[in-house]
Amino acid sequence: MPDRTRSDYDLCVVGAGPAGLNATVTAGERGLRVALVDVGVQPGGQYWRHPDERFPDTLPQPSATRRHGWREYRDLDARLDALVRGGRVVHLAGRHVWGVHPGRPFLVRATAAGEDADPVVVHARRIVLATGAYDRQLPVPGWTTPGVMAAGGVQALLAGHHVRAGRRVVVAGTGPFLLSVAAGLAEAGAEVVAVCEANALTGWAAHPLRTLQEPGKLVEGAGYVTTLLRHRVPFRTRTVITAVHGTGRVTGATLRRVDRRGRARAGSEERVDADLVALGWGFIPQLELAVGVGAATRVDVDGSLVAVVDDDQRSSVSGVYLAGEVTGVGGAVQSGAEGALAGLTAAADAGRADDPRLRARLRRRIARAHRFAVAMHRASSVPVDWPTWLADDTLVCRCEEVDTGTVRAAVRDLAADDPRDVRVTARPGMGMCQGRMCGFALSCLVSVETAVTPAAADLASLATRPLATPVRLAELAEMADGEEG
Amino acid sequence: MIDDSTRQLCFDGRNVPFRPGQSVGAALAAAGISSWRTTRVGAAPRGLFCGIGVCYDCLVTVDGRRSQRACMTPAHEGQVVASDDPRRALDEPGGPNA
Ligand SMILES: Cc1cc2nc3c(=O)[nH]c(=O)nc-3n(C[C@H](O)[C@H](O)[C@H](O)COP(=O)(O)OP(=O)(O)OC[C@H]3O[C@@H](n4cnc5c(N)ncnc54)[C@H](O)[C@@H]3O)c2cc1C
Ligand code: FES
Fold first, then answer.
1. pLDDT tens sequence across A408-441
2. Does the CA dihedral B40-B44-B45-B48 come out positive or negative?
3. If you compute the radius of gyration of chain A from its CA atoms, what whole number of angstroms results?
4. How far A371 CA sits from the closest chain B CA (Å)?
5. Peptide bond before residue A141 is cis, with ω within 30 degrees of 0
6. For chain B, what is the total number of helices (H) and then of strands (E)?
7. Which end is more exposed in chain A, N or C (fewer Cβ atoms within 10 Å of the end residue's Cβ)?
8. Domains of chain B, first to last
9. What is the complex's ipTM, to 2 decimals?
10. d(C-alpha A415, C-alpha A345), whole Å
11. Smallest CA–CA separation between B21 and chain A, in Å?
């Protein structure tokens, strides 16, 4: 098969979001031969998700004046293009990396793009993992009803497809990202019945000083608030959704006021009609490739498992660099700076000239964004008593349909005392999504029952997935067949 | 100028319009269709959830291939999309071998 093995790259970057794009362009412009692999058919990741560029007439592209950071994306995309044309960089788009075999060179295995193409193995001396994050979810009675979606998914439909997933919407969870989703929906003509923020307003919206230190964020936040005011969208703090209603499709939700710990206040029940519920509790780093190559991990301030890096984005594994949400959820600005720094470090480690001034500038930008992110995480934490919203028959694992009662029983009666045990005993987190949707909730539930806080090792065991994505059997067979590594 | 001309795919015998560049899931959502699969245990309806290819809730049969993620599958003219019922035998009418 002619194109199956792509040898001899100095660097393979996985992920083409703000982090991976910056890493690719920075390393490529310093002379490294780079292979960039990404699931998307076009670069951008989550932050710069945009409609398919091949159809600008049917799906209009964002404009630099209306979309935050769009000019920066255009600049990076043009530089990537130039590197691809010059033969420095190859962009393997539409491919999912499902395994990285450690060693020098690393073997990076990716799925076929589309129906007819072959899977590929990229051989590279160094790798940058910039795989981003997905929405963090907490189960709530009724959350499996069609019409309940992850807030980021609702955003992705708007940004990538110009589709509004509902007419009357409740947005709920925590963090400023909810505001951007609500603003996008309102501008697209949806009626946003309420934005429910579980925490108190004093947490972040009332801290102009902190926000001022991160100018980009301030402008964004102010823009969303203006949009929400214009559309008269009610913003409720210390409010959560405790139940979603509807059988075949969402018809409404019950909102409750909660205290600091997330316990519902008596008599605060209110029912609202809606056909779309968007839920978001922050983001969870996509860590399976990093864990798979053996990179050291830790638990971050937001309770997520993240990968450890030094001041130059090196992981604990020689030749593996990490950038973006995988090192701790910090948003697009931080991801971009980390990506550029990872690219610079990889180039320097490969013997190319360093740029100390750029390195210092990037480190400062990262430190500033990180301080902001930590403040944000503290202000938008998951309320500790959220499991009190669950009923025994509320599904925790959407895939294998394992409910709360079964998980609790596994801990109490079967003496399964860490998330790994529960997973093996009651089988939550063993379905198609491999625990991505329920892993966080599961570890919270187990820790409530056992009164033990999950450690990095427990979370890492949940993030270990035999394959980073379900792969077609044919592809596995083909890999095993005549594989040199 | 926005070109409003749309194409169509066929979902369970019904025409669903889409704009080139959209995914199957986006087209179904735009048409107000929110579920196209039933679960194995609870026979409960499911559709889009994560929107970005990680939850596998949106599985659907596309042009005879079962278990495709609607949110990741580009829509194209004349595509045949069929709701997925895991309990349906593979050779039943409407199954992938039909
Ligand atoms: C659904 C969603 C929507 C979001 N929308 C916004 C928004 O509108 N505004 C905002 O400020 N923030 C948004 N975010 C937050 C987002 O995490 C950051 O803004 C930013 O995109 C992070 O940049 P990154 O480069 O670290 O990761 P990402 O932008 O997530 O980029 C990671 C890339 O890696 C790819 N990838 C992952 N695993 C693999 C693999 N195994 N093989 C190949 N490719 C892989 C992904 O497809 C993606 O393209 C969103 C997050 C999510 C999950
Ligand atoms: S909606 Fe989650 S995989 Fe398609």
1. 888 887 766 677 777 777 777 778 888 899 999 9
2. negative
3. 22
4. 29
5. no
6. 1, 7
7. N
8. 4-83 (3.10.20.30)
9. 0.91
10. 47
11. 5
